[in-house]
Automatic annotation (TrEMBL):
Nucleotide-binding is among the record's keywords: yes
Region (Disordered): 1-55
Protein name, per record: G domain-containing protein
GO molecular function: GTP binding; GTPase activity
């Protein structure tokens, strides 16, 4: 048996480096569709966050990362006491101006005032004769075009956080396709934050599926507030069942009931 050759620390380090680079390349293929937008905005003041750890869960959520100074401004502003008395947009903007020199950082939702509904990406047409590679490339190409259209049409200030990971959208497409009925869960404390009208439109008008809206955690807020949300949502979506959900009173004492 031939004697093994000495393996220096430098050579070992180079070997590990090459092995790591090879593994990263193998695990980065599923996120190539993001690179068009990410590299274009790769700066310290504004860049899109994306998975970089090899072997990480493909369903990891990917959002656009905001500049650190913008995040800090909102943290400071969150300590300001909210004036809840105004009921109209003009009154709210006037009240804001009296206590804060900056303009409103977000639109005030007011009943009867509609905002643009941005549609979610739709799975492109496919058939059972397509190969796995053909299907992947078609979905990636369609998703990249959708991403480009969003950032070309809307400014960053007009957009909320939305999913940049195609794998998550693929799971949504396939789940809705196989479902008989979709249940949209809204947190009773802030229902509109979880209500995506683009997603609702996709389920009802693209996939032609029935929907039930469930308002969860209703036991955490006052019954009057729950009833107000029910009235609002039933008026906004008269043909969709709206169901409030409460945790029953606990006999063990482990579940607190505020009311």
């Amino acid at each position: 048996m031939p004697r093994s050759k000495p393996f220096s620390g430098k050579a070992r380090k180079e070997q590990m480096k090459n092995k790591k680079a090879s593994k990263q390349q193998q695990n980065s293929d599923s996120f190539d569709y993001l690179s068009h937008n990410i590299r274009r905005n790769q700066t310290n003041q504004g860049r899109r966050s994306m998975p970089t750890v090899p072997g990480m869960n493909k369903l990891t959520t990917v959002f656009e990362r905001e500049p650190d100074d913008e995040v800090m401004k909102r943290k400071i502003d969150s300590t300001r006491r909210i004036d809840r008395s105004p009921t109209k947009v003009e009154e709210a903007e006037e009240a804001w101006g009296r206590i804060h020199p900056l303009p409103l950082p977000y639109p005030i939702p007011v009943e009867g005032q509609d905002f643009p509904i941005i549609g979610i990406p739709v799975r492109p047409p496919w058939d059972k004769f397509m190969s796995h590679d053909q299907l992947d490339k078609q979905e990636e190409s369609s998703f990249v075009e959708w991403m480009k259209s969003i950032y070309e049409k809307y400014s960053r200030a007009d957009l909320n956080f939305f999913e940049h990971n195609l794998e998550v959208w693929r799971q949504i497409w396939r789940s809705v396709e196989k479902a008989d009925i979709a249940i949209l869960l809204l947190d009773a404390r802030i229902p509109l934050f979880h209500l995506s009208e683009g997603y609702l439109h996709y389920i009802r008008h693209v996939e032609k599926k029935d929907v039930v809206i469930c308002i969860n955690k209703c036991d955490l807020i006052h019954p009057y507030v729950v009833q107000s949300w029910l009235v609002f949502l039933e008026r906004k979506f008269p043909d969709i069942p709206i169901v409030p959900f409460y945790v029953p009173k606990s006999t063990s004492g482990k579940v607190a009931q505020p009311w």
